[in-house]
Design a protein that fits this description.
Layout: H1 7-10, H2 21-55, H3 69-78, H4 83-99, H5 107-124, H6 132-153, H7 160-191, H8 199-202
Amino acid sequence: MLQNSSPSNTAKTPRNFRWRVVDIVVASIIGVASGLIFVVWNQASNPLGGLLTPLLPGLQGLLGGGWLFAGVLGGLIIRKPGAALYTELLAAVVSTLIGGNAWGPLVLVSGLTQGLGAELVFALFLYGNYRAYVALLAGAGAGIALTITDLLLWYPGASATFMAIYLAASIISGVVVAGLLSWLALKGIARTGALSRFASGRDATAVV
């Protein structure tokens, strides 16, 4: 009597979403390194924003990507639930404690919401799809989260025009800087062999 394909051939190997020690270590390195970059960006963003605002109020949202990449990069590399949130929030903590900023501890609220914005996109794909377009969507999600937080904390009572421009600029910045550049950075790091213990490293040559 003929039998159907054996379960070993048809069943998918269940994903293991438990964090390993190496996941925690690498995610922490990403968060701390990103936080140091945030320190520099905190200083550079104000003069750059001063140049953009007179051109079109709300256009300063284009600078947002400089604070959004940590969560997207962490999520792409670690590929575990909570990775995007952890790396983005840790980066915000580091930038606050080490370099200080002009916005005070409320930056931690921004780190939390921006990390959630990217995290929700990865969750939407059940933490199983890390192609380029997912990275771009995660960047867009972080950009939307940044807009919501910034409008509530820093621009209360802003006009509808300002809000629309700020949202569009933040999404564009999130897609390009946090999404595309993080995905390219992942590919570059993975090809060095530094991520050999991660699925992201083994998939370095996968089709987009």
